[in-house]
Amino acid sequence: YIELMMISLLLTLFSLSYYVNAEDLSAYSSAQANTSLWLSAAAYCGSSSYKTHKFAGPTTGFVVTAIIEDLPSDTEGYIGYLPSDKSIYVTFRGSSSIRNWITNLDVIKTSYTSYSECGCQVHKGFYDAEQKVIGGILTEVK
Question: Residue 3 has what pLDDT?
């Protein structure tokens, strides 16, 4: 479990590096980063346990409302809300299988059309995995 927490911490810090370099640092919240870290760690417990997981620490009271899962790509995670901060979280498990790492190797950049306003590009492996689950995520969050 400690190893998973450390991996999640590294992934969270990597993800947050965008905010550290952003011009507007007022959007960064250490408390929300800590909550995200705990939720990310719980994503490694497996999709069959998400709805019964006992959330602790800053995630105490978290309610899972939907499970994200695509078996062919081994993409999984969950959606839920935390009443204490009135926030909805979409949480993905990071790479943990050979299928995930094969997806990671598809690093050619492609336009991120799910949110075309940003003009972003992401690696094709991530994009393909996201496209398999985005419909259910948007339906749940709305």
Answer: 54
